[in-house]
From TrEMBL:
Name the record gives this protein: Putative glycosyltransferase
Pfam families, alphabetized: Glyco_transf_4, Glycos_transf_1
A GO molecular function held by the record: glycosyltransferase activity
One BP annotation, GO: carbohydrate derivative metabolic process
UniProt keyword Transferase present: yes
Keyword Transferase: yes
Record-linked InterPro entries: Glyco_trans_1, Glyco_trans_4-like_N
Residues passing through the membrane, by range: none
Every Glycosyl transferase family domain range: 197-345
Residues in Glycosyltransferase subfamily 4-like N-terminal domain copies: 24-182
Swiss-Prot/TrEMBL keywords: Transferase
Length: 367
């Protein structure tokens, strides 16, 4: 089944997952997992995209592949006979925050969803303003994902998002560090992944998976590779540091670029290495561990909560310690690695799976 932009009006008690998205990253992965999880509990859900670009957002193909209903915000305010015509060419809709807030207010009045759950600062700010200015029972919830303190213009939006958190019915955070930056009481909930499609990996690669940007620390991953020239290291992802990394031209580092099908790539990976400077609780770590791939990581965000030292991975403070733990991995026997892989899977099943976390989120929608 291929899921086209949803044609039907909002059904009773529907949840909208709201975000502004062009590239594909951790927030997009989280939203897809959340939509799947909500649907698993028979609650109506759709993803609402704030903007429609001339080039489709990367998440669109993923939503279609997963048969998840989605709408562009502008379509939710169009007359039904126009919004439901799939062959009508619609102009890109990338409006200002004020315009999108006005559109969302109209959409709430028209469809009256049970809850709007925002992800990312723009969706969060717009939905808080819209819900507060529309009488009704729609709840507004924001999940705060970003562990880094942004710079430039985004720093202002980040501050506005955090200090407007009292407008939300509930504020959710994916790590204690993010929670500490909010001025209101909030809920620290684990990120999560579905286990249904997670096939145990038999791969051997030492891999970095993520955006090639400063906060993710791909340069530190290359520094680690330099300490082990006899082993090959693999980088999955693209981003602003791609050219810089390519110029270093390490003989044992393979830059594989962005993949539209990480399900296949995970089957090649034996150990995920996270060298981030800032994190919340990275979805890549959960995706890896759900497939029996242990994680070796720098101690950022909530990773120390996820990783049980030398049981399902390692969490350390610097590159030297990363190198030492990596050497332990090289020296482990196959049964020892298999035991660590099983521990990783058990950790996700018990604490970071859809079945473990989504009921808590649903209870907040209804409270």
């Amino acid at each position: 089944m291929i899921c086209k932009p949803a044609n039907n009006p909002t059904t009773p008690n529907e949840v909208w997952l709201l975000l502004d998205s062009f590239t594909f990253g951790g927030i997009e992965t989280h939203v897809i997992e959340l939509a799947r999880g909500i649907a698993d509990f028979n609650v109506p859900v759709k993803v609402v995209l704030l903007s429609q670009f001339s080039t489709p957002s990367a998440i669109v193909a993923k939503l279609e592949q997963a048969s998840i209903a989605f709408h562009y915000l502008a379509d939710l305010t169009r007359p039904k006979n126009l919004a439901s015509q799939p062959n009508v060419t619609k102009a890109p809709s990338n409006h200002s925050i004020a315009q999108q807030c006005w559109q969302l207010r109209r959409a709430i009045k028209k469809h009256q969803p049970m809850a709007i759950h925002a992800h990312g600062y723009k969706a969060s700010i717009i939905s808080k303003l819209a819900v507060k200015t529309v009488p009704g029972l729609t709840q507004q919830i924001t999940t705060y994902h970003a562990g880094e303190v942004p710079s430039g213009k985004v720093r202002l939006y980040d501050a506005l998002d955090r200090y407007s958190s009292p407008l939300s019915k509930h504020s959710l955070c994916v790590s204690p560090q993010i929670q500490a930056r909010l001025p209101v009481k909030s809920h620290c909930l684990n990120n999560f992944v579905g286990m249904q499609s997670a096939i145990k990996s038999q791969g051997k690669q030492l891999a970095f998976v993520g955006r090639l940007s400063h906060e993710k620390g791909p340069d530190s991953f290359l520094d680690l590779a330099m300490l082990h020239p006899e082993h090959s290291f693999y980088v999955y992802g693209d981003g602003p540091m791609q050219e810089e990394l390519a110029q270093r031209a390490l003989h044992n580092v393979h830059l594989l670029g962005f993949s539209n099908d990480m399900h296949q790539c995970w089957q090649n990976i034996g150990l995920l290495i996270i060298t981030s400077r800032f994190e919340g609780l990275p979805m890549t770590a959960l995706e890896a561990m759900s497939r029996g791939i242990p994680v070796l990581a720098l101690n950022v965000g909530a990773l120390e909560k996820l990783i049980d030292q030398a049981s399902n991975g390692w969490v350390v403070d610097d590159i030297t310690a990363l190198s030492q733990c990596l050497q332990q991995w090289f020296e482990m026997t196959t049964p020892e690695k298999e035991h660590m892989a099983n521990n990783a899977i058990n950790t996700i099943e018990q604490h970071y799976s859809t079945q473990a976390v989504v009921p808590k989120i649903l209870s907040l929608y209804q409270s």
